[in-house]
Write a structure and sequence with these properties.
single chain; alpha+beta; three-stranded mixed beta sheet; three-stranded antiparallel beta sheet; 5 helices; 6 strands; about 25% strand
């Protein structure tokens, strides 16, 4: 949902991306290994990224990285911020695990991750499942989403 995330482990890779320099992206390996193993065991990893138009430098960087995520078995799709607003989707980051565990992410004003909140209210969880399904229905596959 955010135009940028200030994750310390990404900063050097983002700098290299903006400079057009190559990067091994070793910090992604642990995540990608976990996704590969889970996908091989039949687990599903999917997310929708809501992005601005034009995309920010960070969003373009994330779009390039998503090719590696998708190759590992994670399905990342895209929705423009205007589409998300027209669909009345929420303006906060969250994760759903097995459609029954909701975790809402909290960020500081400078886009640094501050922590996560586990939500147990079934009504709130069902609402977030609905929003996930709406976003998924309207989102474009990574390779079909233009970054210009």
């Amino acid at each position: 949902m955010r135009d940028r995330y200030n994750a310390p482990y990404e900063l050097e890779s983002l700098r290299r991306f903006l400079a057009g320099a190559p990067d091994e992206l070793a910090w992604m390996d642990t995540w990608l290994d976990m996704v590969r193993e889970a996908a091989a065991a039949g687990r599903r990893f999917a997310r929708v990224r809501v992005v601005s138009r034009p995309m920010t430098d960070y969003q373009r960087f994330s779009h390039v990285l998503a090719k590696r995520n998708n190759a590992a078995g994670e399905d990342i799709r895209y929705l423009t911020r205007d589409q998300a607003e027209a669909l009345s989707l929420p303006n906060h980051d969250y994760w759903l695990f097995d459609s029954c565990k909701l975790v809402i992410m909290h960020f500081a004003e400078d886009n640094r991750f501050e922590g996560a909140e586990i939500i147990e209210d079934p009504t709130v969880i069902v609402q977030h499942n609905y929003w996930r399904d709406v976003a998924w229905h309207h989102a474009a596959r990574r390779d079909d989403f233009a970054t210009d």
